[in-house]
């Protein structure tokens, strides 16, 4: 028992030393110091004040986000002054919850800053519908198309005229909100919403939404996590260039690209200037991207949750350091996952106290940036700006070298995040380990990378030994934590990354597995819709049509990116036949025979 305690203590000491050294190096480079961090935003009520603190910790609202989404009925100085007087009447003690709740509702109101909005190019029967007229998916596809106006919102002009009274950030065009508690524009969600809109022939709506993000990049220098002021010190996966690329592929409108390319460059440069970190592996220096949301204090929309975790730390500096780490994890879009945990022994089996996102170099972020650089290069070539075309091509080349040399594990058949504290790979299965297939961020021959990745998926038991589908979609990880971006939750964007990534290899078995995975996911989506007209934000991959769970909030429905990914997969494989009894393909089918034939071919070329 004593020996075990000693080993654990030594491990903690070593971890603390490694972490302190890494932080010292980064602090010198980035002039980062806890006592000099900016607030989450400049509004005291929405981001940093005694009033915010008291309301959130008193649990006036079950969801911390509800309070910071309210509209001010009086100016901020007036409300703060009134609250000081109100609290003093209780001798400086936080008033009882009932009285505090009354004060809140006397001074703030439920947000009414959005109005319902029906896109002008919405039609009830877009051309994609014709492909499903004689299938059991017809009602469902019609409903998905009708979700667009149901989720359509426009920010009222009063927000533009009186921005200080709202946490909502005004944007010029209507948009499609994700759904549920997420009633504002979000960054990476919007990519799959755009894909779905384009498939429904709503290109003007898609362009308007992209222009909203262009507007926000012009305003802030980058795209915030979402359309609220409390998000303005962190972003999300950089998908704006991918959105513009999807629009360009659909319309071939190079004039539009020319009109926004300066903003696209500026957003790309934000990541180059603010999210790159230089480190060494095997004596060679690499500069790659990480997530790094820098501001002090709890996330306003999850204030109570963050504050309670931070109570584990004994100094304000350590608490603020945790707040940076948790905000950085929120910036990833994977909020939260064991993927961001680094415990004293280097494991990912920890808790939110073990979040160390700034110390992790992520596969998916670097792959997306590599793809973004290639897209910019190709557009500048079309626009006859060869200097910039070469500039972005060189950036892409440097990124793909890092992805290959730092992250690729030939022995495993995947790419792994890099742990900067322990100078090692994060070897657990995460769906992000396959994203370079989606972005094309590798120089491995297609057949070879397909063999490797299929073997990896099989070895991790996420598909069966005969390469058939094991679940009703692919889980974010194989570790069952209490976090929502872990097993058994499957997320729409991750399905798209894997399915389309496998398809991109052009390998026969990889494409068959992609089709099987797509069918399993589509059947689960269809089941939830058939049961109650619902499309979930995330799904439990062990239950056909089951909602995902875990995390900081109740399961959400709507749902923007779920609808977009479903349309993408249906568009690519419109010969699906729904099977409401199970997601994976039937055991006795021509699909199974084709898969087994391809698997035999694969088994000749890889070691079993």
Which features would summarize this protein structure in a list?
15 strands; disordered N terminus; 3-stranded antiparallel sheet; EC 3.2.1.28; 608 residues; alpha,alpha-trehalase activity; single chain; mainly alpha
Distance between the termini: 41 Å
Number of strands: 15
- Detail the poorly predicted runs: 1-9, 14-32, 577-583
Helicity range: 40-55%
Major sheet characteristics: 3 strands, antiparallel
Average per-residue pLDDT, rounded, comes to 92
Organism: Sipha flava (yellow sugarcane aphid)
Keywords: Glycosidase, Hydrolase, Signal
Region (Disordered): 578-608
GO molecular function: alpha,alpha-trehalase activity
Describe the protein in words.
50% of the residues lie in helices and 7% in strands. The two termini are 41 Å apart. The strands form six sheets. It has a three-stranded antiparallel sheet. The chain has a three-stranded antiparallel sheet with strand order 8-11-12. It has a three-stranded antiparallel sheet with strand order 13-14-15. The protein is mainly α and 608 residues long. Among the domains are: 119-270, no CATH class; 444-608, no CATH class.
Compose a concise summary of this entry.
With 608 residues, the protein is mostly helical. The protein contains 22 helices and 15 strands. Keywords: Glycosidase, Hydrolase, Signal.
